């Protein structure tokens, strides 16, 4: 039986609430990227942030799949929105770029993450970084507010990706842009992965085809779309075996198709209008 969008969102909320409440050491000990174990899959895709200006270890839960702020072309004084801001890591790095004259708004639908991010911001004394509780399909932000939007491994967790992209278009100023790191597919995932709730919360089975992802961005009125970075995501065999038979694991590993992390850039036109469907923005 197919899981409803509401149930999937609640699953993600519960999983990431658990992560927010764990000590960082526990998170690191349970993630495959850090130790090679297979009990959790949250940061098998994570990139290293530690050398970036604005990095804060308390805000780094290892949940990303790229470094969108590195490519986001943030300028001093910009207003930046971070979709799915977690404990605040990308927001704080964005703040290092936008400076004291800019503003960063982080949005997350997990209250435990919002609480953790606000605590981190208070410790750092950042008065121009705020975190708002809400869905990224319907952000608690006015129209035409942001110069830049960033997001790191979040849209793949949202069942209705089209709604998120539409809302990014709404909150960006005309001429604004986004840089988003996300997980996409080339070819088809085996059913055992695609339908697994654990893998959904781990950012994998909620991913859609790369071409479909890029087409959604285009259909919603964005222009100058480009891929800033792309890398293959290797899922360890012991994780695959939790979801697939030995034969399916062998078939999956031998295929050219796979799971990829991409960082996508796109701009909202200077004279922008809301898009009403797949044909009206061509």
Automatic annotation (TrEMBL):
One of its GO terms (biological process) is methylation. This is Arsenite methyltransferase. It catalyses: arsenic triglutathione + 3 [thioredoxin]-dithiol + 3 S-adenosyl-L-methionine = trimethylarsine + 3 [thioredoxin]-disulfide + 3 glutathione + 3 S-adenosyl-L-homocysteine + 3 H(+); arsenic triglutathione + 2 [thioredoxin]-dithiol + 2 S-adenosyl-L-methionine + H2O = dimethylarsinous acid + 2 [thioredoxin]-disulfide + 3 glutathione + 2 S-adenosyl-L-homocysteine + 2 H(+); arsenic triglutathione + [thioredoxin]-dithiol + S-adenosyl-L-methionine + 2 H2O = methylarsonous acid + [thioredoxin]-disulfide + 3 glutathione + S-adenosyl-L-homocysteine + H(+). Residues 74-221 form the Methyltransferase domain. InterPro entries: Arsenite_MeTrfase-like, Methyltranfer_dom, SAM-dependent_MTases_sf. One of its GO terms (molecular function) is arsenite methyltransferase activity. It is an enzyme of class 2 (transferase). Gene3D superfamilies: Vaccinia Virus protein VP39 (3.40.50.150). Keywords: Methyltransferase, S-adenosyl-L-methionine, Transferase. It comes from the Bacteria. Belongs to the methyltransferase superfamily. Arsenite methyltransferase family. It holds the Pfam family Methyltransf_31. Its EC number is 2.1.1.137.
